[in-house]
Write a structure and sequence with these properties.
With about 230 residues, this protein is α/β, with parallel strands linked by helices. It has a single domain, classed as NAD(P)-binding Rossmann-like Domain (Rossmann fold, 3-Layer(aba) Sandwich), CATH 3.40.50. Helix content is about 45%, strand content about 15%. A hairpin with a 2-residue loop joins strand 7 and strand 8. The radius of gyration is 16 Å and the shape is globular.
Length: about 230
Amino acid sequence: MTVTLITGANKGLGFETARQLQALGHVVYIGARDTERGEKAAAALAARFVQLDVTDDASVSGALATIDAAEGRLDVLVHNAGILGDGALDGPTALRVFDTNAVGVVRVTEAALPLLRRSSNPTVVTVSSSAGSFWAVNNPDRPEYHLPAALYSASKSAATMLTVQYAKSQPDIRFNAIEPGFTATDMTAGFEGGRTPEESARTIVRLATLGADGPTGTFQDENGELRW
């Protein structure tokens, strides 16, 4: 059985990714800040729940310790937790956005590395965004060019870079970042359109189920590697 942890998985894209991986036979741990919502989401999928706030070191350590005690390893880690950080463009908001979207990647990865190293096919997927692609935001033909989300974009650039750097420093573990596509979720409610979480989650699932000879250190979307 493949043991998988997904952060921010009590709703939206994370929940749908959990549902699809569970259907493929994974033992899925739903990580969520809110215990009540996380337990409800896990019960709906017959998955497992761990309280996990990516901005809190003790919470992250506790979640990985729970998985370690129950499973002894971790095969797949999906960094899905993220916030948009719209509103005031100021220091406190910037700290909150980067703490969740970028520093959270470091916290959870570092806590998970000992468990990932016990896997025969360890895989890490970072749900990033083409909003953090320098190429896309400077291309007038791309929708990211017109997206007014400075802190979100900058934090996702950082998340992609962290993923690439981890791939270089941990060659025995595959690290890839994914742009899942513009998706209609609570986080994007202020924007028009967006496809279903079911469709976008398939891109995450594809990277989460790579074979041992799969790529590492890439930033991809549904069409393959993406310039950034």
